[in-house]
Amino acid sequence: MADVSNAAPVQRHEHPTAAIGSRAVRYLAALFVIVTLNFLLPRMMPGDPVMNIVGEEAYYGSGEVLDALRADLGLDEALHVQYGRYMTGLVTGDWGYSYLYLQPVRESITLHLRWTLALVLPSVVLAALLAALLGSIAAWKRSSRTDVGLSGAHLLIYSMPHYWLAMLLLFMFSFKLGWFPLGRATSAGASELPYLIDVGWHMFLPLLVVTAFKAAYDFLIVRNSVVSILGEDYVLMAQAKGLSGMAVLFRHALRNALAPLVTVTAIQFGMVLSGALLVEVVFSWPGMGTLIYDAIGARDYPLLQSAFLIIAICVLIANFIADVLYPYLDPRTR
Amino acid sequence: MRLASHVKTNRLAMVGMIILWVFILGAVFAQLLMPHDPWRHFVPFMSPSVTHVLGTDDVGRDIFSELILGARVSLTVGFMAGLIAVGIGVLVGLLAGFRRGYLDEILMGLTDVVLVIPALPLVILVSVYLGPGIWYTILVIGLVFWPSTARVIRSQVLSVRQSGYVESARALGAGDGWLMRRHVLPNVLPLILAKFVLTVAAAMLMEASLSFLGLGDPMAKSWGMMLHYAFARGGFIREMWWWYVPPGVCISLCILSLTLISFSIEEGSDPRLRRALDR
Amino acid sequence: MILEVRHLSTHYLVRHNPLARFGHRDHLIRAVDDVSFAVTAGEVFGIIGESGSGKTTLARTMLRLCDSTAGDVLHRGRSVFAMNSSELKQYRHSVQPVFQDADSTLDPRQHVGAILEEPLLIHGIGDAATRRQYIGGMLEQINLSPSFLQRHPSELSGGQRQRVALARSLLLNPEVLIADEPTSGLDPLVTTQVLALMLRLKQDHGLTLILISHDLETVAYASDRIAVMYRGRIVELSGGEDFAQRASHPYTRFLLGVERRVPEIPVLEGVHEHIHGAEDGCAYANSCPHHLHVCHSISPELRETSQGHLIACHAIAPE
């Protein structure tokens, strides 16, 4: 009945532990969907499921062993039996075999994942700091040339494909100017630099690109947040009492911008990660991006599935952490 | 101050519209504008010259012609995928926001789950299995972007439903259908439009990413595909910047103009709208 | 008896929120708590209460804009809460609200003409020409020129908006008008105008008016009978003419300014219970200078003490 639905609402103040509980359920549900998707896709998609499961290279290379392979994969068995085997395999660490890299998928993934995380995690932090700084400045000097310039730059970067900017920078600074290496994460001993410096030197450009993009996303959030806070009465009061601009900015404005920033970071972690993948390809950075790129070329399905799974897990973890942190950051609930 | 910013936003949106229309018209009239047949093979790896304004690619096709034709593909994928995504999203958002109860819980649960799954990796995986094909790409991208719209629309529907004037209309004797048509929809329409524009932009970027990885349709060469070939077929190594810079510029300009247009639909800075779009 | 309210209750459940400073348990807000009264056709029935007394929830529940928890509302003997959608539509035709804050009750996107046409369209009254006539006539009655038809609510003053809201409800020719704080937020001159308008229209159309307000003077001036609400309950019900002289309930007397109120000692734990009516006992007990021991444990019933005068109090009207 129309009216009942608009009835006196039973006000539900979300108990934060319960809230996290329900979010955890959502994440688990998502994980379940992903795993099931990974299971069903090769079996539902066009083509021989055997090929879809082991990958093209393996398929065409194995010859007569095909039937044995089919039996070994248990494709003749009932679906739920296969699903059970698949799940056990996942949990025990058997994620399949990559014919591209000629090693178990799990090993390839761990090898490449660390490089991606090495690139993405610092950039997330740096970008947040950069956005906080620039966003505050832009908000403070609203509508001035600084603000317009910064906002314009943000908009420009926001509109570009990440990897295209990467290509431009690589071309400009590595090919033409030779300031940075042409790719990869290390020079494999070719340069005399100590390991960390060497990696850092290689990491500079890709890190710059990923950071620039994340900072562009965050910039607007910070700016809007700070603008709205600067307009609030208690801030004007603080200024009237003689607090300097800087103090006001840092004590009030940024603290309040922190919570939305963290939430946005979590929500967009997936996007940042995805963007980083393509940037890695351009710089031949040995992370998940390169893995996926090569796997696509070789149609190495087990590798692709697991890459998807691990990336999804990372994103879920990031979301979860943000959910746990949020109540502590939101000044309203403190 | 408000008026000044509103006018400025509108001027920016005008710029956006003009740029977008240039590309749309270019796509529509591609046949007339292309100096050569983009599929015809000339001498490969040529530098820009009078006959080939942007040179030729690795198999000798004229890059400038490819660029113009590419507009057609990139824009089509963007708009079609955007339509699918927003179509589904609006339906879900309206149903969930208006009906509430179990339907709302189920739909929002579904939305949240899809929302949290990383988009690009999923699209990559499905596209690899499906193989190349422009319509596959459109469908998959559309199916990945609907949750964001659904959430935003639902939230707006809820806020309109709880507003005083909807309650007053109810008190006048209006039924659900009347309220939906007469009060909810008109208040939700601008949001739908803004979301559509932004989704088209996101879809174009995703298509470009997919193509760069080699999952695009070689028969329908988008700007993203051009970038893929430039990178994978030696254009980058050979420092043929005239090959990969123009497609990137085109993509960027389109996204920029779409974003600018979405600002003006924000309706004189309605704070709820702006907050909703920030998502 | 055109409209009768029988033991009506509307309760809200607020779940416990450990992050809030108060309210450690789930608690029940008894917005409307066992309210009963009957309104005769043609009278002006006033309801007085401060904010938080539940008067708005009462109005909304009577209009079935929100659910009731217990009890019923009867329109000409028929239960409102048992009505199906077409009966409900008829009910809405006969019983119309006028809410306070016409700011939110008028759709900012519609112009006045569309706002006024809406009720007629919903109930399928007349054709385009007839509707225009009705609207034109109504505009005259509320003293607005036809030029207002093209304007949007944001272009009108508060008083004008309220008049439009009033007109919108009246276009349906209802039998009963439930006006909740129709003049709050309006300056005194406009208040007088709107009130005078309502009373005149009541005369002209033979309306029954239920006037809800916190403004004692307004209600006392206009009403035939007056009910006083405190925390969801009616504490006194009396005739309008000698209302001030006859007022006996301690709370009513406090509102009239002839009696004081004991300041409540706030108790941190369970402070919400204090705001929204204690479980047992009189809701006013903690503020009442006459309170007896029994007042804290047994809730007083609304009883008739003299002709047409009802009061709920252990101290003033003992058994």
Measured as a percent range, the helix fraction of chain B is: over 70%
> How many helices of chain B does DSSP assign?
11
Q: How are strands sequenced across the largest beta sheet of chain A?
A: 1-2
Instruction: Report the uncertain regions of chain B.
Output: 268-276
Distance between the termini of chain B: 26 Å
Q: What is the N-to-C succession of helices and strands of chain A?
A: HHHHHHEEHHHHHHHH
N-to-C order of helices and strands of chain B: HHHHHHHHHHH
The helix tally of chain A amounts to 14
β content of chain A, as a range?
A: under 5%
Q: What integer is the average pLDDT of chain B?
A: 86
- Give me the secondary-structure category of chain B: mainly alpha
Q: What would you say the CATH architecture of chain B is?
A: Orthogonal Bundle
CATH topology of chain B: MetI-like fold
Mean pLDDT across all amino acids of chain A: 78
Largest sheet of chain A: 2 strands, antiparallel
> Quick one: overall form of chain A?
globular
Q: Can you tell me the CATH superfamily of chain B?
A: MetI-like
Number of strand elements of chain B: 0
Q: Which descriptors would you attach to this protein?
A:
heterotrimer, B: 279 residues, mainly alpha, MetI-like fold, 11 helices, C: 319 residues, alpha/beta, Rossmann fold, eight-stranded mixed β-sheet, 32% helix, globular
